[in-house]
Amino acid sequence: MSVTRIVLLVVWLLALAAVVFPIVHPLATAGRWLFWVLLAAHAIECLVFWPRLRAAPGSRLGHIVNTMLFGIVHVKSLPRG
Questions:
Q1: Helices (H), the chain
Q2: Please, are residues 75 and 45 in contact by the beta-carbon 8 Å criterion?
Q3: What is the pLDDT of residue 55?
Q4: What total of structural domains would you count in the chain?
């Protein structure tokens, strides 16, 4: 797993923790916003790159999950065509 993917996983986990745990702190508020922004951005990426995700070999659900987690980093790893 690349360093970029590890960093993105850590960011997702911190943002998810801010949503799940009732923390009252300015960083928790920023984490909640970050979670929803990441979720929306990666959902849009799934829609935009749907033809490429669908055409890629392997599990379509796996590609969707990876795109939701890693976004363009995952899409760039897929073969073109």
A1: 3-20, 26-48, 50-55, 60-70, 72-77
A2: yes
A3: 93
A4: 1
Q: At 2, which helix (H) or strand (E)?
A: none
Angle, CA 35 vertex, CA 46 and CA 26 arms, to 5° = 160
Question: What's the rounded Cα separation, in Å, for the pair 73 and 17?
Answer: 23
More confident residue, 26 or 10: 10
Count of positions (residues) in the chain: 81
Q: Residues 17-45: pLDDT tens digits?
A: 888 888 788 788 888 999 999 999 999 99
Domain with 67 in it: 3-77
- d(C-alpha 31, C-alpha 80), whole Å: 34
d(CA 14, CA 20): 10
